[in-house]
Specification:
The protein is 40% helix and 14% strand. By secondary structure, it is an alpha/beta fold. α4 packs parallel to α6, α9 runs parallel beside α10 and α10 crosses α11. The protein starts with 7 loop residues before the first helix and ends in a 5-residue tail after the last helix.
Length: 334
């Protein structure tokens, strides 16, 4: 964790803009963990992006990010194609999260697993659900959902009553016709699977949400996390048109959420902007953390829509509690 630095500027940003917005209890429904012990066939990390972080590290970092707040998590694995020891990684995360029964963990799944193996591991560790990654598909940019989440895994999720946290592929994300066709089909045929569409349904650019929101609101068993979305209008459209009880806070910490800068949008794209290192005499040019940029926009959306204090509290904890209770309540194999 030494590679991430919390600065005095971040503290002033929190105190002045966010401390009066974030409630006392936070369920962060999208965080990642990693240990180099499970890198498998991967070479040593030349980029420094594979940050070692376990459950206690998350709590320690949260004391900086959200001082005085009580934290719980939905923990996801760290997907690195090329030979990662997925079983060791999943086993380790399950052991780590025994420290907090109120938190949850999704099993990292790859297309080369069998559905029998997935079901056995879920029962062995009591996983809340599954976490597929498009990075394990042959074409991570243009793949269909089935290319990184075989339908047999969705059947397992239906049979066992599991959650599925998914980051969609395709340049238009939730607005893509294939993604919409697949989601409509899977949610209808496998009604016991509960889907969390990560990153506001992966609408990092608002044009995606503009074209998808009316479709998304009609789907059953769909939830969302807000992780790493720095586009104000995407956050606004989701909270304006969706059932707000289906939208849960997520951060994508630590590598993405705690990068210093912002995800910016333009045209039909988005990209990470790390901020300028040049001194700008007309303003303060220092950059804060991506998660603080996200929280600032969530606060602005709450103001624009006139969210009540109860709705804000539900966004950060109440909705997640209900989600976890619902999923665990239908898992009769536990």
């Amino acid at each position: 964790m030494s590679k991430i630095e919390y600065q005095e500027f971040d503290r002033s940003f929190w105190d002045e803009e966010l401390a009066d917005f974030v409630p006392d209890t936070v369920y962060d429904m999208h965080v990642h963990m990693w240990s180099e012990r499970h890198r498998g066939k991967l070479p040593p990390d030349p980029t420094g992006l594979r940050l070692e972080i376990d459950y206690q590290d998350h709590l320690a970092w949260a004391k900086n990010l959200y001082p005085g707040r009580k934290m719980h998590y939905l923990v996801l694995g760290t997907p690195i194609p090329g030979g990662i020891d997925t079983e060791g990684h999943n086993d380790w995360m399950a052991e780590e999260m025994k420290q907090d029964p109120e938190s949850g963990i999704n099993m990292m799944v790859t297309p080369d697993m069998t559905p029998e193996y997935v079901a056995a591991q879920v029962k062995r560790h009591g996983f809340l659900g599954l976490k597929p990654y498009r990075t394990f598909a042959p074409d991570p940019t243009h793949c269909r959902i089935r290319d990184f989440l075989p339908e047999s895994f969705i059947e397992v999720a239906h049979d066992l009553g599991l959650a599925i946290t998914m980051h969609m592929s395709k340049p238009e994300g939730p607005a893509d016709a294939d993604n919409q066709k697949d989601l409509a089909d899977y949610t209808k045929r496998y009604p016991r699977a509960q889907w969390i569409l990560a990153h506001c349904a992966r609408a990092f650019n608002c044009f995606m949400m503009e074209r998808a929101i009316q479709f998304l609101t009609g789907l059953p068993n769909i939830w969302y996390d807000t992780s790493a979305v720095n586009d104000l209008y995407s956050q606004y459209l989701l909270m304006k048109h969706e059932d707000r009880s289906r939208v849960m806070f997520g951060s994508d910490n630590v590598v993405a959420g705690c990068a210093r800068g912002k995800y910016v949008t333009y045209g039909r794209a988005w990209t990470y902007y790390e901020g300028t290192t040049e001194t700008t005499p007309h303003c303060d040019s220092r950059a804060t953390l991506v998660i603080y940029e996200q929280l600032r926009q969530e606060k602005q959306v709450a103001d624009m829509l006139g969210l009540t204090s109860q709705e804000i509290e539900d966004h950060f904890s109440g909705n997640a509690r209900r989600f976890l209770r619902q999923v665990r309540g239908q898992q009769d194999w536990r």
